[in-house]
Amino acid sequence: MIEFRNVVKVYNKNNRALEGLNLKIPDGQFLFVVGASGSGKSTMLKILTKEEDCTTGKIYVNGVNLNNIPKRKIPYYRRSLGIVFQDFRLIEKMTVYDNVAFAMHVIGAHPREIESRVDYVLNLVDLRRKSRSKVCELSGGEKQRVGLARALVNNPGIIIADEPTGNIDPEMSYDIVNLLSNINKCGTTIIMVTHDISLVKMFNYRVVELSNGVLRNDTDNLTHTEEVV
Amino acid sequence: MGFQSIKYCLKEGLKNVWANNIMSLASIIVMVCCMILTGSAILLSTNLTRALKSVEHQNSVKVFLTKKTNSVEIAQIEEQIKQVPNVIKCEYYSSDQASAQYKEVLGDLYEILQESGNPFPEAFHVSMEDFSLYDQTVKKLESIKNVESVSDRSETARRLSELNRLISTAGLWTVCALAIVSIFIISNTIKLTIHNRRLEISIMKSVGATNMFICTPFIVEGVVIGLLSAIVSSVILDIIYKSFIDVLGGIISFQGFYTRNIFWEVLKYFSIAGVFIGILGGLVSIRRYLKKEGVSIV
Ligand SMILES: Nc1ncnc2c1ncn2[C@@H]1O[C@H](COP(=O)(O)OP(=O)(O)OP(=O)(O)O)[C@@H](O)[C@H]1O
Ligand SMILES: [Mg+2]
């Protein structure tokens, strides 16, 4: 369970990105976050990943108040999250396999464990055949599947994706969300920010819309359903 | 950090040194220069201190008597000298002894000197307890009847100790300045590595690598550069020092040189300095990046 309680984020004293956000995300939910540019979507995710601290308010993840996590514990908290980036953030000169293995190496996993786990997730995103290819030789969709594999490799309970389809073409985008949907079926909570309303419409998941730093519409709040989509 | 992490960080650190080879080489060269300068200053100062000690150690002056003193007078003078405060030892050194000693050194040339008879006066070797009371003691010795002169050794000692003080002070400042230069150059080299690897750092952070884990490869890089510099400069300094002693030893017959085999000792201190500077350089360069998160790194 993730819960935002009255979360306010002010950048540089006067740039108000979030204006009292309230949102509950149950375990195992698939959630689309939409909203105009500058409405605070990325900010919301950054607060969730502890990349930014909120100015006031509280965020609970599985009962833990994120404001109370000491700095040196943040890395351990992040291991429970899988983060997918719009710009992939892959190391181009390394192979697909090494990019995914990297995420396990840097948290001190054992080489034998790394080998079996990386094979498993590459299979999951259907990239096993390309595991020895360099990332720079891949298409956008394939790159994002590598990014997804990396986010999955440490077996996180929550996947956070900020516009994961922002840099790939529409058919590929569908594949990515479909993959996320399959992962979600195994019980992983998915939070995906997107601008692509047509993509959102293809799946029957909860959608929330941010506007000027507050929740404007939420498909779980049935009265506003039509407005959102 | 577990064993796997340590292994991984060491490997990455070594990779960094290699991947960044030109800058690594540049910083090794700068550090080697710094270490050789520092080492030379310290060795010079050590040897001067030793030279000074050997001069001071004797703590003795020669008291020359006037030419026509006879043996009775000599005995009286010896008693008088022994009475002078601060004198602890007084040894008779006859003109025959002096002439014999010089004969050995000068050989044939000495025969010419000998023509006008033994040119050396009777003398005493007088040892003082406290060299700092030199001036008063010498004055007292000079005032004794039939004492012609007192050899002036203090001038050499004073000069040496002045020079030594100068070298020590200058050396200390040089060491400090060069240490700062070394830290600066190492940290800049590592900064470049970090800049090249900032994407990796941001990924590491996002998947939950600890700060310790993120830092370690860069500290390893600094330490490796420091140790390589230590080895290279020890070898070079060893060669310089040996040839210096050989050349100088041929010119002046000073036996008090500090041991010829300085390599291991120099290597030990250079390694300690290299590791220390490497760690500092690594920390200085990564500090800024540890505070950053996400996009601000890339
Ligand atoms: N690091 C930052 N420093 C200062 N202001 C920031 C920072 N990050 C975001 N902002 C501001 O906060 C507001 C919300 O930004 P945010 O990135 O959360 O929007 P977004 O909904 O993700 O927009 P987009 O759809 O364009 O990605 C914007 O006005 C933005 O200028
Ligand atoms: Mg955004």
Description:
The complex is a heterodimer of chains A (229) and B (298). Chain A is of the alpha/beta class. Chain A has a domain at 81-155. Chain A has 8 helices and 10 strands. A 6-stranded mixed beta sheet of chain A has the order 6-7-8-3-9-10, with helices on both faces. In chain A, strands 2-1-4-5 form a 4-stranded antiparallel beta sheet, covered by helices on one side. In chain A, a hairpin with a 2-residue loop joins strand 4 and strand 5 (64-65). In chain A, helix 3 packs parallel to helix 5 (140-153), helix 4 (111-124) packs across helix 5 (140-153) and helix 5 (140-153) runs parallel beside helix 6 (170-185). The radius of gyration of chain A is 18 Å and the shape is globular. Chain A starts with a strand and ends with a helix. With 298 residues, chain B is of the alpha+beta class. Chain B folds into 2 domains: 3-55 and 157-292, no CATH class; 60-129, Alpha-Beta Plaits (2-Layer Sandwich). Chain B has 10 helices and 4 strands; from the N terminus they run H-H-E-H-E-H-H-E-H-E-H-H-H-H. Chain B has helices at residues 3-19, 21-58, 71-83, 95-106, 108-114, 134-142, 154-196, 198-207, 211-251, 263-291, and strands spanning 60-65, 87-93, 123-128, 147-150. A 4-stranded antiparallel beta sheet of chain B has the order 2-3-1-4. In chain B, helix 1 crosses helix 9 (211-251), helix 2 (21-58) packs antiparallel against helix 7 (154-196) and helix 7 (154-196) runs antiparallel to helix 9 (211-251). The model of chain B has no long low-confidence stretch (mean pLDDT 84). The complex binds adenosine-5'-triphosphate and magnesium ion. The site of adenosine-5'-triphosphate has 12 residues of chain A, from strand 2 and helix 1.
